[in-house]
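Sample A.
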Amino acid sequence: MNFGDILDAWEKEQKSAEKKGAKSTGQEWRNKKTEPDSVRKDAAGSANVKDSEAHPERKVQQNKAHVDPMTEWIRRYGVIDKDAAAEKAAEKELHKDRAWLLDMPYEAQIDLHGLTAEEATVRLGQFVSECYKRGIRKILIIHGKGNHSEDAPVLSGMVRSFVERDYRLGESGHPDKKDGGKGATWVIVREKTVLD
């Protein structure tokens, strides 16, 4: 098809539009671009139904095509709060730092005063299990100085041997006088492992 054929076809369209009663200004293409997509008028001025309204599946495809890729990615994968993740990582590193563990306050404590060695062993085992399960890192065990014992202090020796044998317990020592001095023992509880 050459240019002359195209020009002839255009003139025929113009003449047929004039016969229908609409006067062509040659500006129909502008009106098509500026009118809303939902209603378009042909050369005669009658409203046409939008193609996507006649075919709903095409409308769904058009909506999918117009979704911003970044929005789609966020919907699919979510957003990670990098600041919260960094704070959590920094706190985990602090937990591993020995000096920080030694200076941290006691998160839980148990008082074994007045118990026999067997009763104290059972109660201490339950206490350590609960602390280990809950992720508590530093505990205080109050056992007394043994002033009321006839021979050597009973509970302080039992606590020392319990701490040395239990795999969940780490470093230990005696606190300041205000927290019990030689009558108490602080213990660092190890972090829970994947196998536990």
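Sample B, a different protein:
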Amino acid sequence: MNDFKGRSFLKLLDFTSAEIAYMIDTAASLKAAKKGGVSTAFFPGKNVVLIFEKTSTRTRCAFEVAAHDLGLGTTYLDPNGSQIGKKESIEDTAKVLGRFYEGIEYRGFGQNKVETLAKYAGVPVWNGLTDEFHPTQMLADALTIREKFGTLQGIHLSYFGDARFNTGNSLMVLCAKMGMHCRICSDPTYFPDKKLVEACRDIAMETGGSITLTSDIHQAAKGADVIYTDVWTSMGEPEDVWEQRINALLPYRVTWEIMAEAGKNSIFMHCLPAFHDLETDTGVWVHDRFGLEEMEVTDEVFRSPQSVVFDEAENRMHTIKAVMALTLGMKG
């Protein structure tokens, strides 16, 4: 039996393949319950706190709706809403919040922050995103892929773009843990950390998966079940950083040619937000400076029938609900 009660959810490396599969199964069950109008308010009168040092639409909404469905009250702390790491240390903050709440979500910067919260809080801590890892997104991705293909084992996932940070790192871990084949396609400057690559390759040897790094777009796209990309940079970074990234990564934009090479049964995934048109302030800003109407993915691909980005976004809520429910002690 999988026992999750009291455990924190910080990165997929902390969990076995069987435990990850159990979380995905639980998310599917909770999703079916919600669609069927079945109550899952297992924790009435209990409360969780959501710390957002980096703001988000999907992550905040997913946690708040999931918590509400579980009967949990929520407190949301935005980047200006707490003194964590400013006037109060992370350790002291964790010890205080752990006495007020049954669980703590953190979305922010270094992985060390969420690890420190978990060390001292005395209650489950959930990683909503750090610079290094994005485990709740990975569960949503895994549920989406399983819904489309019926399995994770043996699936070929190709990621195009900047793979040095949380999404690229976490996709490698997910694929390694679940016996999937991960191809990272980018300029070599944007490959993931070598130590993590080797760690994932060691895991993949046990599960039947594989990790491949390549700059060959055709090698990465051919026969892929899943084509995946993410944003190249964020607002607030210097303009020269944007220019450098765009110049290096433009060859790895996901186009219809890439989808065609993958095949008609392939799906397109993106953890959002996506810069695929000029309907955002950021899109207009990029267009005005660099002349691009699309960045990491073309609008044609993003809006195509093969795109499952909104299924993927919905599944953030169902998988986050599973993580909270299991670690707070939901009875199976």
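Observation for Sample B: The chain has a mean pLDDT of 95.
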